[in-house]
Amino acid sequence: MNLFDVYPLYNITPVKALDCTITDEKGVEYLDLYGGHGVISIGHTQPDYVAKLKNQLDNIGFYSNAIQNPLQVELAEKLGKLSGLEDYTLFLCSSGAEANENALKLASFHNNKSRVIAFDNSFHGRTSAAVAVTDNKKIVAPINAQQIVTFLPLNNIELVENELKKGDVSSVIIEGIQGVGGLDQGTTEFFQALEKLCAAYDVVLILDEVQSGYGRSGKFFAHQHHNIKADIICLAKGMGNGFPIGGILISPIFTASYGLLGTTFGGNHLACAAGIAVLDVIESEKLMDNVNDVYAYFLEAIKQVPEVIKVKGRGLMLGVEFDFDVSTLRKKMIIDKHIFTGNANNKNLLRILPPLTIKKEAIDTFIIALKEALAELK
């Protein structure tokens, strides 16, 4: 049997990783400035994380949600404390797409409406409703297109209100900072107006923080930079540092009932151990402080590269934009300079999503390599 061929692959086979370094089967070391789509939050094979998972596996790795699991309670309490959202409740699942699915479903149950407002260049996942609210027709199958979704440009609040006035909108879903779409984000004015309008029209405001959450922006959630509160917040990626875990934080306006939401794997013992370890390390190592320090350093250092026309995003969720397609540059950075970066729908953009443990010295390494690669391509 062969693998279903849906991923274009670089001819690199990682076999070991530590913090921000990946080592391949030939012993070549790579600087990881992408974290596997922003999944690696506290560094590869972080010792406390590894120890907690090993210990948990020695005891119990999985059982269903039909029994008591104190690890779920511990995870919820620590997440509430670190995010500052202790009055919210937590539903656990296994991925970002699943988190967004459950958020959209819960919103629809809540107000008995179905239409969703999403935004141009958004990405929310590849499953049924999540892909329907993703602005990429290439990955939306006919069965997904049955969902009723209206796409609008970011930062045009008048267009949003025109749609909400029609009375059939269940939810508005928006990323704290757009990921795949190219690091665009709403302004503070836009986010604050959106919060008020959703409350006025009985519409659920869903913040997709799957990539932009967990300290990556310099605050626990990116939307907290705008001093707003969402009705539902979607989590995954950095939540488990590579172990599959996702969830939604649910504001007090919602009432739970048995059977309303459900999952087989969500909230299992091993996933919760991973989630607790991540929160403990973020707190003990003050990683959000590191994010802000390295972000400020990056903004100054990148000025050494005149070909860069703009830096987009915030914290350690960044896009470095040029006035040309960067696909050849990105390949050269990986193959010749041994540095992983990411791409985006914006073909002129390198995406930077390193572990939150990254040091300033690694930024220096990136800048030197980027300058060399650009010179060589000329």
Automatic annotation (TrEMBL):
<keyword id="KW-0808">Transferase</keyword>
<keyword id="KW-0663">Pyridoxal phosphate</keyword>
<dbReference type="InterPro" id="IPR049704">
    <property type="entry name" value="Aminotrans_3_PPA_site"/>
</dbReference>
<dbReference type="GO" id="GO:0008483">
    <property type="term" value="F:transaminase activity"/>
</dbReference>
<dbReference type="InterPro" id="IPR015424">
    <property type="entry name" value="PyrdxlP-dep_Trfase"/>
</dbReference>
<dbReference type="Pfam" id="PF00202">
    <property type="entry name" value="Aminotran_3"/>
</dbReference>
<dbReference type="InterPro" id="IPR015421">
    <property type="entry name" value="PyrdxlP-dep_Trfase_major"/>
</dbReference>
<protein>
    <submittedName>
        <fullName>Acetylornithine aminotransferase</fullName>
    </submittedName>
</protein>
<dbReference type="GO" id="GO:0042802">
    <property type="term" value="F:identical protein binding"/>
</dbReference>
<keyword id="KW-0032">Aminotransferase</keyword>
<dbReference type="GO" id="GO:0030170">
    <property type="term" value="F:pyridoxal phosphate binding"/>
</dbReference>
<dbReference type="InterPro" id="IPR050103">
    <property type="entry name" value="Class-III_PLP-dep_AT"/>
</dbReference>
<comment type="similarity">
    <text>Belongs to the class-III pyridoxal-phosphate-dependent aminotransferase family.</text>
</comment>
<dbReference type="InterPro" id="IPR005814">
    <property type="entry name" value="Aminotrans_3"/>
</dbReference>
<dbReference type="InterPro" id="IPR015422">
    <property type="entry name" value="PyrdxlP-dep_Trfase_small"/>
</dbReference>
